TrEMBL record:
InterPro entries linked: Kinase-like_dom_sf, Plant_Ser_Thr_Prot_Kinase, Prot_kinase_dom, Protein_kinase_ATP_BS, Ser-Thr/Tyr_kinase_cat_dom, Ser/Thr_kinase_AS
Source organism per UniProt: Penstemon smallii
Protein localization: Cell membrane
Binding-site residues, ATP: 121
Cross-referenced PANTHER family: OS01G0588500 PROTEIN-RELATED
Top enzyme category: transferase
Protein name per the record: non-specific serine/threonine protein kinase
Compositionally biased spans, kind Low complexity: 21-44
Length: 418
């Protein structure tokens, strides 16, 4: 029998400074400036739930301790039919994610019956695995909000580390924006708006807490979708407690995903709450254009989406030329322009010039309700304009399957600029 964490052993505050004493692993974070003494108060109910009139402020909660079920390895093995390849839902830097079936009564799995879950299994080659696993358990195990994916439990036996989540039927936003094949239908404009509002609410909830949580890995692959395209944030492996009131940032080893990580963070290791807002802006641009944040297959000068597209986001005419061709012009141009201008503010160089997530949610909700009134789909000439300009058809851009060059997308330590 291997080591299985008891509830007690994970009942610690989310890792904030240095040592994770229960397993004797030290984090690679310096955190010197502002996280000292940054424990999360026992019953801190997130203030996002109260004190605001905004419809965006849906109740959420942070529990004092992770409230998780401990699974045995054999149970999860059976639930995924021995981690069979046809149950694989996807793969990231941590390892493969499998679809599993749990029979609640007997605690054993029956193929194709029982409740459906997603089981993430640590890849033995993953360098950041243990720390990310602990962070996930300590953050996501305690956070509860309609726009955060539910972590149901975990397993740690010998070298096996696994996480068990609610199953998100429609997979990730990344699949829908960049996937190809007959099973991937282009997302209509209204669905894109719904998804980004949900994701914004999840992030706003984290930022509006008494002690702010910095998510640090906002990207399309971490936005998961249920059967109704209700968005939930997943992956808290890189999450960090925000700075204390007297500080503007925490200092930490630079981790994240190229293309989404905020420039000030990559350059200095200074992580602001508003560093998340930069990543949010990048996803807004991906949603508008249907192009990946970073794609080394694009011509030089176009690898970094935001740097390349920025000059097109100010102007209605220019915007039309870069909108996702899979929308086929079916979107209200006014809303698209409002969103692109919002994206521009999110990717401002100076963190303090970026809007807060609360402001972003309010703006998106205003755009959405104005959109409601114009539900009639309108076809713009932009579709033809894009094709005239010779933009490549979608199937030649950004295939989803894992290629060698896609490995850069996984979250990993980013080298600092000198
Ligand atoms: N709860 C879930 N329900 C359904 N599918 C899931 C779930 N969690 C993950 N997946 C699928 O597994 C894929 C891999 O997820 P994972 O979080 O491991 O990696 P990633 O986000 O793509 O990359 P990274 O490791 O850089 O975060 C996702 O893109 C998604 O398709
Ligand atoms: Mg992920």
């Amino acid at each position: 029998m291997g080591i299985c964490w008891s509830s007690a052993s994970v009942n610690q505050s989310p890792p904030t400074t240095g040592q994770l004493s229960s397993v004797g692993v030290s984090q690679n974070t310096s955190n010197t400036t502002s996280t000292s003494g940054s424990t999360v108060s026992g019953n801190s109910r997130f203030s996002a739930a109260s004190g605001s009139d905004s419809p965006s402020t849906v109740a959420g909660q942070m529990l004092p301790h992770p409230n998780l079920r401990i699974f045995s390895f054999s149970e999860l093995k059976a639930s995924t039919r021995n981690f069979r390849s046809d149950t694989v839902l996807g793969e990231g830097g941590f390892g493969k994610v499998y679809k599993g079936w749990l029979d609640e009564k007997s605690n054993t799995a029956r193929n194709g019956s029982g409740s459906v879950v997603a089981v993430k299994k640590l890849n033995s080659e993953s360098l950041q695995g243990l720390q990310e696993w602990q962070s996930e358990v300590n953050f996501l195990g305690r956070l509860s909000h309609p726009n955060l994916v539910k972590l149901l439990g975990y397993c740690w036996e010998d070298t096996e580390l696994l996480l068990v989540y609610e199953f998100m039927q429609k997979g990730s936003l990344e699949n829908h924006l960049f996937g190809r094949g007959s099973s991937v239908q282009p997302l209509p404009w209204e669905t894109r708006l719904k998804i980004i509002i949900g994701a914004a609410r999840g992030l706003a909830f984290l930022h509006e807490s008494d002690r702010k949580v910095i998510y640090r890995d906002f990207k399309a692959s971490n936005i998961l979708l249920d059967g109704s395209y209700h968005a939930k944030l997943s992956d808290f492996g890189l999450a960090k407690m925000g700075p204390t009131a007297s500080r503007s940032h925490v200092t930490t080893q630079v981790m994240g995903t190229y293309g989404y990580a905020a420039p000030e963070y990559v350059a200095t290791g200074h992580l602001y709450v508003k560093s998340d807002v930069y990543g949010f802006g990048v996803v807004l641009v991906e949603i508008l254009t249907g192009l990946r944040a970073l794609d080394p297959n694009r011509p030089s000068g176009q690898h970094n989406l935001v740097e390349w597209i920025k000059p097109h986001l100010y102007d209605k005419r220019k915007l039309k030329n870069i909108m996702d061709i899979r929308l086929e012009g079916r979107y209200p141009s006014r809303s698209a322009l409002q969103i692109s201008r919002l994206a521009l503010t999110c990717v401002e160089k100076e963190p303090k010039n970026r809007p807060s997530m609360k402001e972003i949610v309010e703006t998106l909700e205003r755009i959405d309700s104005a959109n409601e009134k114009l539900r009639q789909p309108r076809v713009h000439s932009s579709y033809q304009a894009v094709n005239r300009r010779g933009q490549q058809p979608m199937q030649n851009r950004s295939p989803l399957h894992l290629r060698q060059e896609d490995l850069h997308r996984a979250a990993y330590p980013l080298p600092q600029r000198v």
